[in-house]
Amino acid sequence: MTALVTFGETMLRLSPPRGERLETARELEVQAGGAESNVAVAATRLGRDAAWFSKLPDSPLGRRIVGELRSHGVDTDGVVWADDADARQGVYYLEHGASPRPTNVVYDRADAAVTTLETSETDLDAVRDAEVCFTSGITPALSETLRETTADVLEAAQDAGTTTAFDLNYRTKLWSPDEAAEVYRDLLDSIDLLFAAERDAATVLGRDGDAESVARGLAEDYDIETVVVTRGEEGSLAVSDGAVSEQGVYEAETYDAIGTGDAFVGGYLAKHLDGGSVAESLQWASATASFKRTVEGDIAVVNPGDIERVVADEGDGISR
Amino acid sequence: MTALVTFGETMLRLSPPRGERLETARELEVQAGGAESNVAVAATRLGRDAAWFSKLPDSPLGRRIVGELRSHGVDTDGVVWADDADARQGVYYLEHGASPRPTNVVYDRADAAVTTLETSETDLDAVRDAEVCFTSGITPALSETLRETTADVLEAAQDAGTTTAFDLNYRTKLWSPDEAAEVYRDLLDSIDLLFAAERDAATVLGRDGDAESVARGLAEDYDIETVVVTRGEEGSLAVSDGAVSEQGVYEAETYDAIGTGDAFVGGYLAKHLDGGSVAESLQWASATASFKRTVEGDIAVVNPGDIERVVADEGDGISR
Amino acid sequence: MTALVTFGETMLRLSPPRGERLETARELEVQAGGAESNVAVAATRLGRDAAWFSKLPDSPLGRRIVGELRSHGVDTDGVVWADDADARQGVYYLEHGASPRPTNVVYDRADAAVTTLETSETDLDAVRDAEVCFTSGITPALSETLRETTADVLEAAQDAGTTTAFDLNYRTKLWSPDEAAEVYRDLLDSIDLLFAAERDAATVLGRDGDAESVARGLAEDYDIETVVVTRGEEGSLAVSDGAVSEQGVYEAETYDAIGTGDAFVGGYLAKHLDGGSVAESLQWASATASFKRTVEGDIAVVNPGDIERVVADEGDGISR
Amino acid sequence: MTALVTFGETMLRLSPPRGERLETARELEVQAGGAESNVAVAATRLGRDAAWFSKLPDSPLGRRIVGELRSHGVDTDGVVWADDADARQGVYYLEHGASPRPTNVVYDRADAAVTTLETSETDLDAVRDAEVCFTSGITPALSETLRETTADVLEAAQDAGTTTAFDLNYRTKLWSPDEAAEVYRDLLDSIDLLFAAERDAATVLGRDGDAESVARGLAEDYDIETVVVTRGEEGSLAVSDGAVSEQGVYEAETYDAIGTGDAFVGGYLAKHLDGGSVAESLQWASATASFKRTVEGDIAVVNPGDIERVVADEGDGISR
Amino acid sequence: MTALVTFGETMLRLSPPRGERLETARELEVQAGGAESNVAVAATRLGRDAAWFSKLPDSPLGRRIVGELRSHGVDTDGVVWADDADARQGVYYLEHGASPRPTNVVYDRADAAVTTLETSETDLDAVRDAEVCFTSGITPALSETLRETTADVLEAAQDAGTTTAFDLNYRTKLWSPDEAAEVYRDLLDSIDLLFAAERDAATVLGRDGDAESVARGLAEDYDIETVVVTRGEEGSLAVSDGAVSEQGVYEAETYDAIGTGDAFVGGYLAKHLDGGSVAESLQWASATASFKRTVEGDIAVVNPGDIERVVADEGDGISR
Amino acid sequence: MTALVTFGETMLRLSPPRGERLETARELEVQAGGAESNVAVAATRLGRDAAWFSKLPDSPLGRRIVGELRSHGVDTDGVVWADDADARQGVYYLEHGASPRPTNVVYDRADAAVTTLETSETDLDAVRDAEVCFTSGITPALSETLRETTADVLEAAQDAGTTTAFDLNYRTKLWSPDEAAEVYRDLLDSIDLLFAAERDAATVLGRDGDAESVARGLAEDYDIETVVVTRGEEGSLAVSDGAVSEQGVYEAETYDAIGTGDAFVGGYLAKHLDGGSVAESLQWASATASFKRTVEGDIAVVNPGDIERVVADEGDGISR
C-alpha cells in the first residue's frame, strides 16, 4: 500500500544558465517539474511510499518525466500513456532572475496529454487505498476534463476515508481569480487538509485579515480539518480542529526558489504520514522548503538526515 | 529590394549531445531550424539579399528565432508577431542517430502561431518585389489557413513576375501521401522552379521511372519552367525548358545531415540569383549541401569562398 | 513477482570527454555501470520486470547508483545498505580510446561494500520466486565472501526451479585464468544457461575448437541446458538441448563499446522471458548489443520498438 | 533613416567561468563587446533603429562580431571590411572577480583593424541623416588615425544638425590622463550631449566639486547642451539648458558589471529618441543600467517591457 | 636548494556544479587537493621554491595529481611511485553547500598508496637541505606507517636545523580527538612553528581560554618557537619567542572555502621564507587566505602582486 | 643537465567544439600549442629531460602557457618574461574541419613578445650543455630579430658539440617559399639532424625526386649528418651517414591531426637521446605521431608504455 498518492501535470523544465536570457540561450538544462510530483518526490525521499499519476505521451519526452521521478523512488505505475501521435508533453521554460529582473516562466502546456485524463482512466482503488491523496489548484485549471477528474478523484478518496490534501497554488497565467474561485469553492468541500498561500487566499477567495482568521474562516466555511496558511518570509500557521500551530522560516541562501512551496507540502505530508503532530509536520515543512532553496531544480533532493540536521540546527558549514 | 523572399515555419530545435538519448537527456542544445529559413540563411550567407517571414509568438522563444536568423543577415521585418498569451512557438526535439539507431525527430509544432498566418497579415508587396519567392511543402501541411495563405502568396508572386520556387519536402509525420498529393497538385500550377526528391515524387505524386522522365513529366504536366530532382547519393538532375543538366554529389564526412536539402536549395538559388546557369546553380546546390553536412545545426554556416573551394576542389585538409 | 533477479557489483563510471586522457582530465562524466545491473536494465527496458541486488554504502555515492537504476525501472528493494562510515563505493575510470590507443579502464573497486555481502543478508525468497536469476563471473572474483554468496544464491535458485544464468565475463585485471577456472568449474554445476565469450572459454577453461564444439562440450561436461557462445564480429551460437542456433551481428557505428556483452545477455533474457525461442532470443540479444553500441554509457537505453526495428531492418537514417 | 549611429571598436570578449582564473582556464566564453556597439544594441532592443560602424578584419572573427550585433537588430551595413591577411580583430580577456580579487581585463587590441579606419572610408551621409551620433572616449584613444576620424565624424554630424553624443569613458590601460585630456578638450567643442563619470571628470579634466557644478562647468566651458554626470551608487544628474534633473540608482543583484555604463547611455538615448524628457531619459538610463547588471556579457539583453517594469517597480520575483 | 618541502596526501577532488547534489550528479569537476600540496603551491606561486613529496600510484590518476602540482611550479621529484597494480589514489567528493545545506565531503581515501610510505623511501637529504619542512595533522592520521614516517621526517628535519612547521588540521572523519591528541603530543616536541585552529586546540588538546593563552601554553609546554592560532572570522594571533602579533581578516566574497587554511599557511611561509617578520607573515597569511576564497578549487591560484594589492587595499572592483 | 633544449613560439590555441564554426562560436577550448614546445613535451613525457625557452608576456596569458608546459614536466626556467604592458601573447584560432571543409587556422601572432627575443636574452650555456638543441622553420619566420637569434643559438650549439636539430615546418601563412628558402639555406649549414616534409622540400627548396634522393641531396649539399624525410601516409625515410632507414605509418583513428609532425620529432628525439639507432628512432617517431592523432590538442599526451605497445602492436581495443 502506498501512503501517499498525488496526481497532476509534470512538465519538462528547460532553463538556460544563470545570467543568460531565454532569448539568447544556446543550451537548456532539462528537468522534470510539477507541483504534485514535486510533493511526491519530497515525501518519498523523506521516507514515505508515494505514487504519482498523470497522463503522458508515450514518447521519449513522456518517458523522460517518468524516468526522473522513478529515480527518486516515486511509484509511477498509475501513469496513463497516450499513444496517439500528437499527444503533447507540457513544457515550461524557466529564466532564472536576479533583481530587478524577475525569474520568468514561459508555459507551453496547452493541450498536454494530461488535459484529457478522464476519471475512468485512473486507478481509483489506488487512491482509496492510500492514506493521503494530494493535488493542487493547478490541476483543475488545465482543462474542463481535468476539472471533473479532479473532483471525482478527491471525492472518491474522501469517501474511502483517505485524507484529501490540496494546495491552492493559484497561477495567474492559467486562469483569472474568478474562474479559479468558482472551481476552488466546489472542490474545497472534499478537502481534509488545505495548504493556502496567504496571497492566494486573498486574491482568489477574497480572504483578508490575519493568517489565523483566514485559516479559521476556511476551516469553518468548508469544514476542513486542517488549514495551513503560508506567509512567505513570515512563516506559516496551521489551524487544526481549532488548535493553532505556528512555524517560522529557516533561513536559506536561495539557489533556486522554484518548488519551494511543493517542498513545504512534501515535508509536511512526510512527517504527518510518519505520525507527526501538526506542529512537527509544520516544522518539517518549513525545513524542507528551506533546504529545497539550495538545490537547482523543481525537486527537493533531500534525505531525512538533512532535515533532521536543519531542525536540530547543527550546521557548521563544512562537514569533513 | 530583396532578391529572395521565403516563408514558412521555423522551430526551436532542441537536441541532446551525440550518443545520448532524448529520454535520458540533461542538456539540450538550442538552435533555430525550418526549411524556408534555412534556405534564406544559405542564400544570404552566399551573398544574396534574402528575407523570411512567418508568424511567431511575441515571447522570448519567438525572439530567439528572429535573433538567430538576423545574425546571419536575413531580413525578418516581415515577421508577424502574435501577442496573444497562448501563441505557441513550434519546437522539434532531435536525437542524433548512429546506425542502427535512426536519427529521431519528435515534433511539437501543433497549433504554433504560424498556423494562423493569414494572407491579409503578409506583406504581399515585398513578395511581388522579390526576384524569387520560395516555400516548401511543409508550409501547407501545417494548417488549413496556411494552405490558403501559401496558395495566395505563390499566386500573387507569380502574377507579379516573381519566380516562384517550391520544394516538395514531404513529411510522413505531418500528413498522408494522399492529403499531400491533393495540395501539391493545386500548388504546382503556380510554380516556376520545383525541387523534388525522387522519393517524394514517387511516394506522393506517383511519379516512377528515372529522374529525367520524372522531371520532364512534372515540367510538362504542370507547365513548370525548371524541375530539379534530387536522388540522394546519386546526385541531382534538372530539366529546364527541356534541357537536361546533371550534377554529382561532393563527398562529405557527415556531422549533421539535417538541413542538407535546404542547403541544396539555398545554394541553387544563390547562384541562380547571381545569374548562374542551371548547371552552375546545380553545382553550387550540391557543394552547399555537402558543406552543410559538416556543420552542427539546421543551418549552412557557409561563405562564398567555402563553396568556391569545394567546387574548385582545392582542399588539403588543413589551412595554416 | 519479478521475472528476473540479477546481483553483482555496480560501480560509478567516471570518464573524460572523447579525445581527452584521464591524466589531463578536468571533467568526468558520471554513470552507473556493472555487468549484472546492465543486464537488469536492458531486460526491464525491453518489458520484463527485473530486480537487482547488491550491497552499497549508505552514502550519496551509493544512492547515486540506485537512483540511476531505478530511473530505468529496475527494482532495487533488495539492495543491502552498508552504513559503516568506511563502506566503499567501487569506481572505475574509463578513458575512451581510438586506435592505436586502447580504451583504458582503471578500476578502484577493492574493498567495495559489495565484497562483504553475505548470503544471510540476501533475500533468497526473491531469488526463488524469480523465473531467472543471473550473475556474471565478475561477482565471485571480487572476494572470498562473494564467492560463497554467489554459490549459495545460484544453488538456492536452481533448487527452487529458477533458471540460473551466468556469463563467464573473465577480467584479466581481477584474477588469473587459473583462479578463475577453479571457481567457474564449481559454479557451472549450478548453471542452466551459460553465456561464454569464445576467448574466455579458451583462456580460462581451455576450450579450443570451433564455437559449436565449445558449446557442446560445456553443455555436456556441466550438464547445462543452454550454452551461448559469442564470437565478437562473427556472431553467436547457442546449443540448447543439443540443438544449434546461429546468429550474425547487426552492424553498428560504435559510439561506446562498453556494456555490449551485457546488452546481449539482457536482450536474450528479455526475449526468453517473453516466451521466445532460443533462436529468437539470440536475435534480440544480437540486436540489443548492436543498439547499445550507439549510446554513451554502460547501459542500453533501449525500448522494445527500437529492437523490433533493428530486427525488421527498417532504418532509413532519419525519422521525421 | 536610422535614428542612432554609433562607431568605435568592438572586441571579442573571452572569459573563463566564474571562480576560475585566466591563467588556469580551459574554456573561454565568447561574446562581442565594445562601448559603442553596446550602446547601439541597447537602443535597438529598446525600440529605436540603430546602426554601428567600425573596421573589422574580413575573417571568421570579424564576422563573429557582426553576427552577434545583427542578432540584436543593429544595422551593420556601414562596417568597413579589412581584407589584408594580417588585419587584426581586437580581443579582451575578462576574469570575473570577487572581492578582494578585482575583475581583471587583459586587452589585446593593439593594431586592430579599426585603428586604421579613415574618414574617407566612413559613410558620412548615414551620420548626417541620423538624429544622434554617438562614440566614446575609447575611440580616439586607439590610434592617431582614429583620433582624426573621430573628430571628422563628430564635426560632420554636428554641422548637419545631428545631435552628437559622447561618453568620456577614460581607460587607464589605454592612455594617461594628460593625453586623454588634450584630445577630450578638442572634441568637446563638437559635442551636444556629454556623459561623464564623476571620477573621469576629476581624473582627466580636473573637474572637482559636486556633480552639479561639474556638469554646469562642462556645459558652459564647452557650450554643451546637456551634460550627464554619473556617480556610481549615488545616481546621476543632468544639466540641460541650465535645468537640473537627478536620478537615483535601481538596486540590482550584480551578475556582470561590465557594460553597465554603456547600458546607461543606451537607455538614455532610447528614451530621448522616443521624445522623452531629460528626466525621463535619465530614468530609463538608470533602469537599463540596473537591468544590465543581471545579465552575463557586455550587452544589455533587454526589451522595452523589462524597463517599463523596473521603472514601475512591479517585481515580485517570479512571474508564472 | 628548495626553500620549502612539504609532504602528505593529495587526493583527486571530484565535485558537481554548485546547486547540484552528489547523488544526482552527472558531471564532476576534477582537481588536485591536499593540505600539504596546497601549502606548497601557495608558497611556490608567491615566489618561493617549494617541493612536495608523497607516494602515488603509477597510474593516470597519480600522474594527474603530479601534473597539476607541477603546473604551478612545485617540484615533485621526490614523489614515490607505487607500481603495484592495486595501489590506490585517494579521492574526495565535494558537494558545495548553501545554508542550511552544509558543504559535504565524502572521503574515499582508505588504503591510498600514501598510507604505505615508509621513511626509507623518502629523500631525507632534501628535507635536511630545506629551510622549512611542513606537514599537517592529516598525515599521521592516515596510517600507522605514516605516523612513524611523519615522526621520522620531522625529527630528521629538526636535527638538521630545518624549521619544522605543522598545522593541527584535525579531521573528525579520520580519527577521534583522543587518538589525535596522543599523536599530536608526540609530534609537537619536534615542531618549531605550529599552526592551530582555536577549535582544534580546544577539541583535541583541551586548550581553552583566549587565543593568546592557548598560544603561550602550547609554546611553553612543547617548547615551540612560534605558535599561530587562527580564529576564523576573528582573525589570527601569533606568539613568537614570547612576543604577540595579531592580524584581522580581509573580507572576501567566498566562492569556495575549501583550502583557506592551507592558503593561510602557504602565505605565511612564503613571507617568512622571504625574510618577513612574524607580523608581516601573518598579514600575508591572512591576505592569501582571503584571496583563496574567491577561487574555485583547493588551490590558491595567486600571484605576488595579488597579495600586495590586498595588503595595500587598492581594489576598485574592475581593472581595465 | 637537460638532454634536450627547444625554443620557439608557443601560442594559445582557441578552438570551438567539433561541428561548430569559429564565426558562430560561443565557447572556445584553450590549450598551449607551438611546434617546439610540442616537441619538448613529447620528449619529456617519453622519459627525457627537456627544456623549452621563449619570450612571453608577464601576464595571465603568458603564465597560462608556462603552466601547461610545466604540467608535462618541461623545464621552463629559460623563459624570458616581457613585462612591458603591451607585450603580446600569440594566439591561434582552430576550427576543426570535416571534408570538404578544411581544418582552418586563423593566426593572431603578429608582434608577439617572442618576436623580440634577442640572443643576449637567452641562456646559451644551457644550450651548450644540452645533447640536442631543436627549433623549427617557424621561428625564423616570425621576425628579423628571431631570424638572427635562431642563427646565433644554433651556431653556438653546434660549436659546443650539441647536436642541432631542425624541422623545416614551412607555413604558407607566414612567408613565401622564396623568403623561406633564403633563410633555410643559411641555417642548414648549422644543422646536424634535419626533419623535412617531402612537400616542404619540394615547395621551398625545390628538391623533387624520390624521398631518398631528396634526403641524400640535402645531406650532401649542407653536410647534414642525418636527414629525415616524411611522406605523410607513405611513411618516412632517413639517410644518416649515407645509410638509409625506412619506416611505415601506424594507422590511427584521427581525432586531432594538429601536432602530428611535432610528435614525430619528439618521438624521434626521445629514442635517439635514449641511445636508439636511427631505425629505432624512426619507429618511435612514427608511433608517437600515430598516437598523437587520437588525442585532442597540439600536445602528445603520451607515456613510454603507450609507445611500446604501439610498436609491439598489442592492442585489443579495451584494456580492463
TrEMBL record, chains A, B, C, D, E, F:
Boundaries of every Carbohydrate kinase PfkB domain copy: 1-300
Superkingdom of the source species: Archaea
Molecular function GO labels: ATP binding; kinase activity
Keyword Cytoplasm part of the UniProt annotation: no
Keywords: ATP-binding, Kinase, Nucleotide-binding, Transferase
InterPro entries in the cross-refs: KDG_KDGal_kin_Halo, PfkB_Carbo_kinase, PfkB_dom, Ribo/fructo_kinase, Ribokinase-like
NCBIfam families in the record: KDG_KDGal_kin_Halo
Family: Belongs to the carbohydrate kinase PfkB family.
PANTHER family recorded: HEXOKINASE FAMILY MEMBER, PSEUDOURIDINE KINASE-RELATED
Protein name: Sugar kinase
Organism: Haloferax marisrubri
